[in-house]
Fold these 2 entries.
Entry 1:
Amino acid sequence: MDFDKASHFWTDKEAGSKVAPDAKDRLEKFIEKHKVCALATGAGEYVRCTPIEYNFVDGAFYLFSEGGMKFKGLKDNKNVCLAIFDAGYKVGFGELHSAQISGAAEIVEPFSEEYLKLLQYKHIPEEMIRKMPEPMHLIKITPVEADFLDTDFKKDGYDARQKVVF
């Protein structure tokens, strides 16, 4: 198996691809249409992929979490990847919609202005969080780039797979 060759398949193919000028706008609409992603974290030999609810606010992803093994990866590696996709192949390969988004994660300080803004956005009462033994953790992910697959691009004469840089 030539793993290097296989890993470069899409980057080699993208060299001659037809880029859609509205790819970023279409990606953001796709992101806003969904609410759950698979969050991949890892460090060294450890990897974890966690299904989790997100909110996309002001160009960043915000994820509230009580805790879990995803933080083991985040402790030593702030680089993450989110996968967002339509459930199942409803009508086959001609109707694919998904995004893999790479970015940098940080933990938002509990009860900071940004934290309170997200509580309000999600209609979570601040007093409820303050009564918890430990406040919910808030992960902020600033996206860097995305591989966006949307077969609808083909209808407009573009490649179905688009690279989007934030």
Entry 2:
Amino acid sequence: MLKACLNGGVTRQQHARVPLTPAELAEDARRCREAGAAAVHVHPRDADGRESLAPEHVAAAVEAIREACPGLPVGVTTGAWILPDPAARVKAIAAWRVLPDFASVNAHEEGALDVARAVHDRGVGVEAGVWSAAALVEYLRWPVPCVRVLIECMAPDPAQALADAARMLALLPSGSPPVLLHAEGPGVWPVLRQAVARELDARIGLEDTLVMPDGSPARDNPALVAAAVAAGAR
């Protein structure tokens, strides 16, 4: 499964075509699905472009994407940088009136298990975000079922990102949920190729990289998705 990660925390100053508004997210999602993406992950924004977990902003983003792309699975973040207080994140999730199909919860963040429970209790699929071997060990203690494990290689050096991927994958027990392997920054394309080689889920988009496989600037999310499909992701 190839997921398009449309915006993350990227600003207009970093990339002129990053989608921020619900309408922009919906149009990018539509074009990414046409290019080969099977799901999308978004960071809803408020009127000032700031990332938000507020029910009205989550609803606006999810509803716009579903209207433009019926049947396309839509996921959102629950990142602690948006609401550092775990109780505030749990409260926000409990107030969501339009539910995404899945939401990522980073295992290393304070209160991650409570946030994962809150997501699961709403009937939303939990994606466990694992950034390190220590975070993976923490995730393995969760009693909350997950629909997917995100092995996220955050090291800026591609060789280290690949080494981290191999280490974390080796620690996963048999019978684990499906794995999505990805990186951020310079390691994105080498790690995506590793995901293809291992027949794992993958993701691509402006949240993770602003460049194409040859290092040239990426025009937009659909261009990145098309390049990932050409590299064997699907």
